Amino acid sequence: MPTRQSRRAHGTLGERFAVLDPSTGEAFDEAPDQQPDVLDAVVGRACEAWRSWRADPVARATALRAAADAVEGAGADLAPLLTREQGKPLAESYAEIARAAARLRYFAGLDTRPQPITDGRPVHSEIRWRSLGPVAAIVPWNFPLQLASAKFAPALAAGNTMVLKPSPFTPLATRLLGAVLSSALPEDVLTIVTGREPLGARLATHPGIRHVTFTGSIPTGQAVAAGAAASLARVTLELGGNDAAILLEDVEVERIADRLFWSAFRNCGQVCMAVKRVYAPARLYSQVVEALAQRAKTAVVGAGLDPGSQLGPVNNAPQLARVERYTAQALADGARAVAGGHRLDRPGYFFAPTILADVPSDSPVVTQEQFGPVLPVLPYRSLDEAVEAANDTGFGLGGSVWGTDLDRAEAVAGRLECGTAWINHHAELSLAQPFAGIKQSGVGVAGGLWGLYGNLRPFVVHRPQEA
């Protein structure tokens, strides 16, 4: 039975829009198409809820832990719905839900105690931390629940309230998550709004919002930042990546091939920090290409609800068209599809896992973020050449180095221009570590204490040491 919180969070039903199953391309449900004029009331209620939510950190931590328990308890309802609208294998949906619950518990356990300032003056100075107010979160379709929790867990733990808008491609599991969380959170602390544009644009520019956190494309992120500037709201932007993996001369290809392949193809390649380019030494190039191609050819592609599926469909038709376009351009430029290279002849948005060899370095599949099950592999003759190529991009999210000599691999990793560098693995994050990109991959920091403080502002109090 929906609670008062969930009914209010979901808004009046009114107009609705279809939600498609990417494994069939057919509509299977609908979601409310809320209009921008609901935002004044929604943000106003979030501001009212903020006054009491911010006042009691102990009660907040207790509520967030209860929320984590509720999310875990609802996994059997959330996971199939997430798979149905997003496309990923069911096991990955369960993992996403577990990560959301773990993130709530992690941030519930963080502490922001006052910090004294010692500067030699006869004054006692202390930094205290205050919440910002209502926060807007705009979440993409690749990890709807995990990325939602990455935004609401630190924001709520800091004492803010939140209005969260999921992608119109994946609104249903997020709406259900909002209903689940309403059993643990006070009314209007977290509100879910669903709808098509211009709902997101209006949310980002609403004068009652004090922080906008967005994950998505660079052009949309730029528009979000420009809109938030009108009210001088803080922005946190995670805008994707074009992560490179550099294989060193001493790499043991068969030993790392599985990890490397899944670092690129997990969630059908729809991961901002997935490996999207591989640079292999010329001497090992054919061996690397063949090892990755063999795994691409044997990966089981199917609907996420099918138990044997390892890779699901691309989430939506526009993204599938992008993957097809980049692949076709690479082939026209002279690349070879050693595996895949085409859409699968079946209903839904399925694209064959694709390994591209002999790709020109200026082909869009190399220079842009393909965000799908396509991986170009490029040879290099000198390590300096590989590092220069890896850094020759407007993105700067992550990167990795693969080899046997860990000291040498770490030295090479230190030369990468990105926010996170991994050695012999990729795209693995701890809840305690900061996550941020450089260049056009984003603004601000998520994760760990840095993510919590990104939702707070300092408040300094001075008092004399003596009357």
From TrEMBL:
What PROSITE patterns does the record point to?
ALDEHYDE_DEHYDR_CYS, ALDEHYDE_DEHYDR_GLU
Domain Aldehyde dehydrogenase as annotated: residue spans = 15-452
Q: Does the keyword ATP-binding apply?
A: no
Active-site residues, record numbering mapped to chain: E238
Q: Does the keyword Signal apply?
A: no
* InterPro entries attached to this UniProt entry: Ald_DH/histidinol_DH (IPR016161), Ald_DH_C (IPR016163), Ald_DH_CS_CYS (IPR016160), Ald_DH_CS_GLU (IPR029510), Ald_DH_N (IPR016162), Aldehyde_DH_dom (IPR015590), LUC3-like (IPR044086)
Name assigned to this protein: Aldehyde dehydrogenase
Keywords linked to the UniProt accession: Oxidoreductase
**Gene3D superfamilies in UniProt:** Aldehyde Dehydrogenase, Chain A, domain 1, Aldehyde Dehydrogenase, Chain A, domain 2
List the Gene Ontology MF annotations in alphabetical order.
oxidoreductase activity, acting on the aldehyde or oxo group of donors, NAD or NADP as acceptor
The record's family statement is: Belongs to the aldehyde dehydrogenase family.
Pfam families in the cross-refs: Aldedh
